[in-house]
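Fill in residues.
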């Protein structure tokens, strides 16, 4: 084969290969884009509705949320108030932020059940890589928030013990 034939053959191969483009990748998987339709926040709202009397609006039982998160809905809300400003993020041009309620619910569900990040990803419709980042962040915020509360409670208990012993 002459060098001219090799050049023509190489050019033809380039033309053929350039027409065989790989399918375009996506920023967010289509299965995870369904989070806009139904997400973890919707699930928590449904669980809260299960526990609330529809006529009076009073809490009739705390079973659904407590069973799912291993925490009462009141404790969950107090954690949101305490750490919400720390774990909240902002929307970007590429994707919407994961709401604070979902961030905390994902973390608590992980701690309560020991599910894998992949399993939580399918359940909450959040990417596995996002979960692997948010779980340690939320855990750190919860530890920081509870550390202050637990220390002050422990000091109060120690003071009460000293007073009663004296």
């Amino acid at each position: 084969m002459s060098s001219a034939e090799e050049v023509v053959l190489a050019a033809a191969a380039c033309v053929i290969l350039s027409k065989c483009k790989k399918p375009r990748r996506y920023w967010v998987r289509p299965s995870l884009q369904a989070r806009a339709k139904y997400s973890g926040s919707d699930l928590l709202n449904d669980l809260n509705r299960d526990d609330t009397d529809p006529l009076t609006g009073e809490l009739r039982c705390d079973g659904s949320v407590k069973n799912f998160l291993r925490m009462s809905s009141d404790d969950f809300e107090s954690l949101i108030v305490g750490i919400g400003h720390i774990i909240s993020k902002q929307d970007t041009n590429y994707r919407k932020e994961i709401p604070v309620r979902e961030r905390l619910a994902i973390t608590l569900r992980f701690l309560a059940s020991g599910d894998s990040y992949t399993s939580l990803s399918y359940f909450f419709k959040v990417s596995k890589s996002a979960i692997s980042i948010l779980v340690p962040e939320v855990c750190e915020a919860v530890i920081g928030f509870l550390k202050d509360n637990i220390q002050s409670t422990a000091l109060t208990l120690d003071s009460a013990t000293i007073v009663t012993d004296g």
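The mean pLDDT is 79.
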